[in-house]
């Protein structure tokens, strides 16, 4: 194939992808993740973001959950307020590594009485050995416990580029299968930027008879320096082209936002081309970029359309 023919083929393929993407017309499922605020300013930002994203009618919005008792109470507070003051389906994260069985039972009862029917079940970060006082060692233990109490819809975490503590990629897959066998309904992935990593992971799940709804986690990146810290901790690959795109933009917020939206939209385009219809957005409590990306997916403000 000549260079001209190659360029023509590439242009036609890009046109086809864009056409397919535009034809989605909102025929996708979206969900958002927030974290509980720790200051009045962050609280205002959170609720402003929730209100802006609410009209997009996501399947659910999840709220992260920390290890400390105060963080847990902030999570409970956000969940309760979402349920009582919005039309959204509020889904709490629940970690178990430092919790007693009695604590988990109390939390589960409390959530069920509030009307919560969906929980993101996680092990949580391991504490120091000397301070570990919990009755659970794995997310699988938590899933079995929750299912024994109520018929919760359970989401769990998955890692396209392998969990940092996993002995191998196969061991990580085996662990995900145990969570699915315990009753997990879907797996939401760690954020990633190498789309091939997700697609290979999806193939491996199929090869291992892992029948679970696999939802890609999408992270719009406005703070590249912060992303590098996240990536070191989670062992997520940051492609070289991203380093180049963000180079010299430490003080240029607007350009970083434009690049972040472009990267996320292109990522969603490629995934939708491969048949993905469910997307989970890590909002970092900021609405604008996620709103713009979902708009490009065909999700529109349902409240404005109805008025």
SSE diagram, text form:
Elements: H1 3-22, E1 29-34, H2 40-53, E2 60-63, H3 69-85, E3 90-95, H4 101-114, E4 118-122, H5 139-149, E5 153-158, H6 169-182, E6 186-191, H7 195-207, E7 213-218, H8 224-234, H9 240-246, H10 253-273, E8 278-282, H11 288-296, H12 302-306
Parallel strand pairs: 1-2, 1-8, 2-3, 3-4, 4-5, 5-6, 6-7, 7-8
Describe the structure.
- The termini are far apart.
- 51% of the residues lie in helices and 14% in strands.
- The protein has an 8-stranded parallel beta barrel with strand order 1-2-3-4-5-6-7-8, surrounded by 4 helices.
- The longest helix is centred in the C-terminal third of the chain and has 21 residues, at 253-273.
- The chain is globular and about 50 Å long.
- It is built from 12 helices and 8 strands.
- By secondary structure, it is α/β, with parallel strands linked by helices.
- α2 (40-53) links the parallel β1 (29-34) and β2 (60-63).
Calculate Rg over CA atoms.
Answer: 20 Å
Low-confidence stretches: 1-14
Which band does the percent of strand residues land in? Answer: 5-15%
Q: Report helical residue fraction.
A: 40-55%
Shape: globular
Number of strands: 8
Order of strands in the sheet with most strands: 1-2-3-4-5-6-7-8
**Which structural class do you get from the secondary structure elements?**
alpha/beta
Secondary-structure element order, as H and E? HEHEHEHEHEHEHEHHHEHH
Instruction: Count up the helices.
Output: 12
End-to-end gap:
54 Å
Largest sheet: 8 strands, parallel, barrel
Task: Calculate the mean pLDDT score and round it.
Answer: 88
